[in-house]
Amino acid sequence: xxxxxxxxxxxxxxxxxxxxxxxxxxxxxxxxxxxxxxxxxxxxxxxxxxxxxxxxxxxxxxxxxxxxxxxxxxxxxxxxxxxxxxxxxxxxxxxxxxxxxxxxxxxxxxxxxxxxxxxxxxxxxxxxxxxxxxxxxxxxxxxxxxxxxxxxxxxxxxxxxxxxxxxxxxxxxxxxxxxxxxxxxxxxxxxxxxxxxxxxxxxxxxxxxxxxxxxxxxxxxxxxxxxxxxxxxxxxxxxxxxxxxxxxxxxxxx
Length: 254
Description:
Layout: E1 7-20, E2 24-31, E3 35-41, E4 60-67, E5 72-81, H1 84-87, H2 90-106, H3 114-129, H4 134-147, E6 169-172, E7 177-179, E8 190-193, H5 195-206, H6 209-212, H7 219-237, H8 243-253
Parallel strand pairs: 3-5
Antiparallel strand pairs: 1-2, 1-4, 2-3, 4-5, 6-7, 6-8
């Protein structure tokens, strides 16, 4: 990282942008060197702008920043990876939107976390190259929760601590994990979880990506895993996510 009092060079992924003024954009970035940042890209909405194509969402870009009065100002930008297959597939784009929304919602401008940056870029690469988006996204969710300190308890009961046995169990978001049948009434809002869904979730949690990617849950189990993860993430964030509904609408059209 090259840093002086007034300038900064970062390798970053553009999480989102919004219009700012007449021709500018406000960017939300997640960088390897500084974590989450906000910056103004001046003039990128003009037709002749050379930086615009390097600052689109889901793009990994090397960016030079200068310190403005309140925000960083983008002075140079060069795309390192456009993740083009994501841009050419609406379903992949929806999954990428979910990936960046999760990171955006869970993080603040609080400094470097290179592990989160690595997880983000690896996940975008996996979405680009995989024929099935399910495991890349589920693996991302599980690793993200772990890095943020919200790793769900899946191998022992979150209430009594006893080892989970081979039967349908329950899941409590407020207790942060699986509840055995005798403790099912201990959580404030408890969901039943089937043995198959729990088995796949445990496999993803304890495996590296190579091993996790061998899993191929049937459609019904995938829907259950999606619902359970969405329930837990919504509880942690204390608000609903936008992208799952977008993903659902796209699936209806395919």
